[in-house]
Design goal:
The complex is a heterodimer. Chain A is α/β, with parallel strands linked by helices. Chain A contains nine helices and 18 strands. Among the domains of chain A are: about 110 residues, 3-Layer(aba) Sandwich (Rossmann fold); about 140 residues, abc- transporter (atp binding component) like domain (Coagulation Factor XIII, Chain A, domain 1), CATH 2.70.50. The two termini of chain B are about 35 Å apart. The chains are: A alpha/beta, B mainly alpha. Chains A and B meet through strand 1, helix 2, helix 3, strand 4 and helix 4 of A and strand 1, helix 1, helix 5, helix 8 and helix 13 of B.
């Protein structure tokens, strides 16, 4: 069997520190309705069409302390993978090894006894996560403090609000100091303030005890923030495994069609698209044409994603065919929701009267760091003449990039301040704050 | 870190079942304690008069049988006053039946937990069984009170009471595990168990002594492993009744078989429990 051969081979060469998680050819086959029943228990032979694979042939290794995001569409097998690794369900094929104490954040309120007090439930829930009484007692003060329940800690849990239960549940799970921490969409439960607190605690845990983190999420922003590596699952199989930026970029390119570069087709004109921003008339005259457009990072390399505190540059290369027409590029920035973030006109001081020389031109617009909010941005590239006002080419949302934030960003680096939540609004500028005492 | 030795957890599709006693069972001892306490609380601490309610069923059933005996004049008991004979039988029978029923429903009751977090699922039926030991204590108070009232003495065979109780609880645990595991694939099994327990009240020596039966009926009756347990309890408690060594040895052997089958089925089922629930 290939799995056995692989494992014996890796044992002989295990000179390097053992990985925290090693997954080899892991797969999970589910029975469809009709194939269930007594046969499942007796493991009777199954027909192939009575089953489907929720996960198949997934292999990877995670070093201790590594933070791995697991992304993919609904039904891609992310949760199945995490359920197998947390031993809730068993794999149908393959093997996994995990070194150290495993903790997965439970769905909020799992395992609470509503009749017992909050304090008694801490012991019950911690026991469920594998803590001894002594270990729980050592953490009791921290857990109670984190849950912010005050005197309610002695009240039965049935008298708690949903938010209070959520805080207590998370407080317990967040204080068990695991070696391997598995988070499955924890951010999808609870209100915004609670999610913020969870994220903050995850950040603290990652910093302080440095557990190995396996983080399933639909939120690419959250994965980029907390993880340094990313695994992309699609249709039960592992599509890509690599550093967080390249995998999430590839994922966004595939699913959200985020693409940081555009090159015009050799022939023919791109059909004009009505723009919600520009009301100028569309010119039929061949005055200028875009050759390519690209998103560049601060050092001028083409990219699909930029850090929120770093500038992003939009490069437009275009041909001007007619002399003296004052051709200029313009950029329209849209966010994920399709809202216009802003429109930028060509304001190069070296070309006060726009571009009048025929030939190939390159214009670069630099958007400062700490201006755009996080998420995907799409850019419409337009070539216009101001006098007479006419639009010569409109390439609607032709390039795009995503703005992301890292959890390790310093307080003075980003506009987040001390708040963990997602900031609403089209932009997230870092303002120049001052303060003085007046009395 | 509180765990300096990093234990290696291996998840392998090749293993057909999880071991009878998972290696980390000891690590979850606190959970077993908490679950036992929880099961105890659920039964006794949510009502102020729960302890009194425990007595209602055995006392009324005993009363009915005593009145039947008085009315018909037929004495089916042996070795002790009939009231004491029946009370002992009824108390131990209901402890057995309740334990079996609680253990077999333990997985379904905590399905939500099994589907979300890993722990050795043997803890669930085991905790239910341990919590029922409180019933034994309560039953003994009633039996002892009646025994003193009726002036029935004890002898050295009283020492056998604890082994008999342990054997009966283990039999209930073994059968409960088997039913719990089996009912994952076939939930109807538990209905069948309810019927079996109902019939068992009449097919076990609860209100009659095996000695009062015809030889053929007596031989058939002894297939039931509870004969040894119930007669054993009486033999241990009453100086007037000798301990049924042969019948109880058979009960012990059947308990061993039940435990083996129950734990094997449960460990097989534990691989897929989260999906089957």
């Amino acid at each position: 069997m290939s799995i056995a051969a692989e494992s014996s081979a890796s044992e002989t060469t295990a000179a390097a520190p053992a990985p925290a998680v090693r997954v080899q050819g892991l797969g999970k086959r589910y029975l469809l309705e009709g194939a269930r029943g007594a046969g499942a228990l007796l493991q009777a032979r199954l027909k192939e069409n009575q089953t489907f694979w929720a996960l198949r042939g997934v292999s990877f290794e995670v070093a201790a302390g590594e933070r791995v995001g697991i992304i993919g569409r609904n039904g891609a097998g992310k949760s199945t993978l995490l359920k197998i690794l947390s031993r809730v369900i068993s794999p149908s094929e393959g093997r996994a090894e995990i070194r150290g104490r495993i903790a997965s954040l439970l769905e909020v309120g799992t395992g609470f006894n509503p009749r017992l007090s909050g304090r008694a439930n801490i012991f019950l829930n911690a026991a469920l996560l594998g803590l001894s009484r002594k270990e729980t007692e050592a953490r009791l003060a921290d857990i109670i403090g984190f849950a912010e329940l005050g005197r309610f800690i002695e009240e039965p849990v049935k008298s708690y609000s949903t938010g209070m239960r959520a805080r207590l549940g998370f407080a317990i799970a967040a204080h068990i100091d695991p070696d391997v921490l598995m988070l499955d969409e924890v951010l999808s439960v609870g209100d915004a303030a609670f999610q913020a607190k969870c994220l903050q605690r995850v950040g603290e845990m990652v910093g302080a005890t440095n557990p190995t983190l396996l983080f399933v999420s639909h939120s690419i922003a959250a994965v980029r923030r907390f993880c340094d590596r990313c695994i992309w699952l699609d249709k039960a199989e592992l599509v890509m495994d690599g550093d967080v930026v390249s995998v999430t970029e590839a994922y966004e390119e595939k699913l959200l069609k985020v693409k940081g570069a555009y090159r015009a087709p050799d022939r023919g004109r791109v059909a004009p698209v009505p723009s919600p921003v520009i009301t100028e008339s569309e010119s039929d005259e061949d005055v200028a044409r875009v050759v390519s457009a690209a998103v560049l990072n601060a050092t001028g390399e083409q990219t699909n994603s930029v850090r929120i505190d770093e500038p992003v540059q939009i490069e437009v290369i275009f041909d001007v065919f007619v002399r003296g027409r004052r051709v200029e590029p313009a950029l329209h920035f849209f966010n994920e929701r399709g809202d216009v973030v802003f429109v930028a006109a060509f304001t190069d001081p070296a070309a006060p009267r726009a571009i009048n020389e025929p030939g190939r031109h390159r214009a670069v617009a630099r958007v400062p760091g700490n201006l755009l909010n996080d998420g995907v941005h799409r850019v419409t590239v337009v070539l216009v003449t101001a006098d007479p006002l006419a639009r010569h080419e409109t390439l609607d949302k032709i390039i795009s990039f995503s703005v992301f934030e890292r959890e390790d960003a310093r307080l003075d680096q980003v506009a987040r301040g001390r708040y963990a939540r997602r900031f609403p609004g089209a932009v997230r500028p870092k303002l120049a704050w001052t303060h003085s005492r007046v009395n | 870190m509180l765990t300096p030795e990093k234990q290696l957890v291996v998840i392998d599709a090749c293993e057909a079942r999880r071991p009878l006693l998972p290696r980390d069972f000891w690590r979850f001892r606190e959970l077993l304690a908490q679950m036992t306490l929880g099961a105890f609380r659920a039964k006794y601490l949510h009502l102020k008069t729960s302890f009194l309610w425990f007595y209602v069923r055995p006392l009324t059933v005993t009363l009915v049988f005593v009145m039947l005996k008085a009315g018909s004049g037929i004495d089916l008991g042996a070795g002790a006053p009939y009231a004491l004979f029946v009370l002992t039988g009824v108390c131990f029978w209901f402890i057995f039946a309740d334990t079996l029923s609680a253990a077999s429903g333990a997985l379904a009751r905590d399905a939500g937990l099994i589907q979300k977090v890993y722990f050795p699922i043997l803890i669930l039926p085991l905790a239910q069984t341990l919590a029922r030991l409180a019933d034994v204590g309560l039953a003994m108070i009633a039996v002892a009170a009646l025994q003193v009232t009726l002036g029935v003495g004890v002898d050295w065979e009283l020492l056998m009471l604890i082994p008999v109780v342990v054997q009966m609880m283990l039999l209930a645990l073994g059968l409960g595990c088997a039913v719990a595991a089996w009912s994952l694939a076939l939930p109807d099994v538990r209905e069948g168990v309810n019927v079996a327990l109902y019939l068992g009240l009449f097919l076990s020596p609860v209100f009659f002594a095996p000695g009062a039966m015809q030889p053929v009926a007596r031989a058939l009756l002894h297939v039931n492993p509870l004969v040894g347990s119930l007669e054993g309890a009486r033999g241990a408690l009453f100086s007037t009744t000798s301990f049924p060594w042969a019948a109880w040895s058979y009960s012990c052997a059947m308990t061993g078989v039940a435990l083996l089958v129950g734990l094997t089925l449960l460990s097989r089922a534990s691989r897929n429990a989260a999906e089957l629930l």
